[in-house]
Design goal:
CATH superfamily: ABC transporter involved in vitamin B12 uptake, BtuC
Distance between the termini: 40 Å
Helix content: over 70%
CATH class: Mainly Alpha
Number of helices: 14
Radius of gyration: 21 Å
CATH architecture: Orthogonal Bundle
CATH topology: ABC transporter involved in vitamin B12 uptake, BtuC
Order of helices and strands: HHHHHEEHHHHHHHHH
Strand content: under 5%
Oligomer: single chain
Shape: globular
Length: about 350
């Protein structure tokens, strides 16, 4: 009876927490939709949505409808899926490695994406023009996605032996591939002209300015599928917190869980980075923040992290548009300014605990 009451209370607390976070996300969405150089009020936003649903609405300016529907709404939705997926990938990788300092970049996704992106940007005039004309505006996103996925597969293969994956070797392989990718990026930039270097620098800082419905359909589908799969592993991640041996004895297929979470983390992060550019610290900050407030149970941690990751990305994008208006900062700068101090706080906290 007491156990049943405890489980019921915990479930109600979980639902309440998710409802509160969801409400904050709705507020962030509205703020993002009304923020920008072209003024659109909240009532006009609601009116435009009502019009799209077929309801009779009067006095809607065509310009405002076009700005909201073709520019701001795709940007908001892209921020939600990218921010949420980065946070969920961070939760999964931290749970998988049992290391709270791990983030998606550790498995080489970001560096691989950046390497292939700089190759397209720098050498497009000499070797990439046919490729770019064939896939049009998707040359950069596609190359970045492929680079991130290839880097992750290589890191995973280096860490695998006899069907088993050594987590320590995987982290070291990720560090090595990140270093190699960084060196090759520097070499590629050396041969680039000023315009190519400027374009790559802007891409590497991260931005949601290139959002469109076409990109959202393709990239968003990959991210949502990957995120849903990662969200389906709360029990396995809770078992991994006890150690791989204990997880195995609890009936968890350890190798299958490792491979699945690594592949779909890479797919989600690579797809997001391919469109937005490198956006750091979301996968590190959000899991810690949610874990501090709601605890380490992955049944709550995974969905809450997705919502908070979306809120963080939307908030960062709003700040990027407001701080230097009418110009715009790169959203990666904002997430780094938020994430770096938080990362230092985590390190100092660990240091004090180990000293004690």
């Amino acid at each position: 009876m007491q156990l049943s009451l405890y489980l019921s209370t915990r479930s109600s607390h979980r639902k309440m927490a998710l409802a509160i976070i969801g409400s904050v996300l709705l507020v962030a969405i509205m703020l993002s939709l009304v923020t920008g150089a072209y003024p659109i009020t909240a009532s006009e936003v609601l009116g435009i949505f009502a019009h799209k649903l077929g309801m009779p609405v009067s006095h809607l300016a065509a310009e405002k409808m076009n700005v909201l529907w073709t520019i701001r709404l795709p940007r908001v939705l892209l921020a939600i899926v990218v921010g949420g997926s980065l946070a969920v990938a961070g939760v999964c990788l931290q749970g998988l490695f049992r290391n709270p300092l791990v983030e998606p970049a550790i498995i080489g996704v970001s560096s691989g994406s950046a390497l292939f992106a700089v190759i397209i940007i720098v050498f497009s005039s000499s070797i990439g023009w046919q490729l770019q004309s064939f896939i049009g505006v998707f040359a950069l996103p596609l190359s970045a996605f492929v680079g991130g996925l290839l880097n992750t597969i290589l890191v995973y293969k280096l860490a695998s032996k006899a069907g088993k994956t050594d987590i320590a070797i995987l982290i070291l392989a990720g560090v090595a591939m990140n270093a190699l990718s960084g060196a090759l990026i520097g070499l590629a930039i050396y041969f680039g002209d000023d315009n190519a270097i400027r374009n790559f620098t802007f891409w590497s800082l991260g931005s949601l300015g290139g959002a469109s419905w076409t990109k959202l359909y393709i990239v968003g589908t990959l991210i949502i599928i990957s995120s849903l799969i990662m969200l389906s592993f709360p029990r396995a991640l809770n078992a991994f917190a006890l150690g791989e041996s204990e997880a195995f004895h609890m009936g968890i297929d350890v190798q299958k869980v490792k491979m699945t979470l690594l592949v779909f983390s890479a797919l989600a992060v690579g797809a997001g980075v391919s469109v937005t550019g490198a956006i750091g610290f979301v996968g590190l900050v959000v899991p810690h923040l949610v874990r501090m407030v709601l605890g380490a149970d992955h049944h709550t941690l995974l969905p809450a992290s997705f919502l908070v990751g979306a809120i963080l990305m939307l908030g960062s994008d709003i700040l990027a548009r407001v701080l230097v208006a009418p110009a715009e900062l790169s959203v990666g700068i904002i997430t780094a300014l938020i994430g770096a101090p938080f990362f230092l706080y985590i390190l100092l906290n660990f240091k004090s605990k180990r000293t004690i």
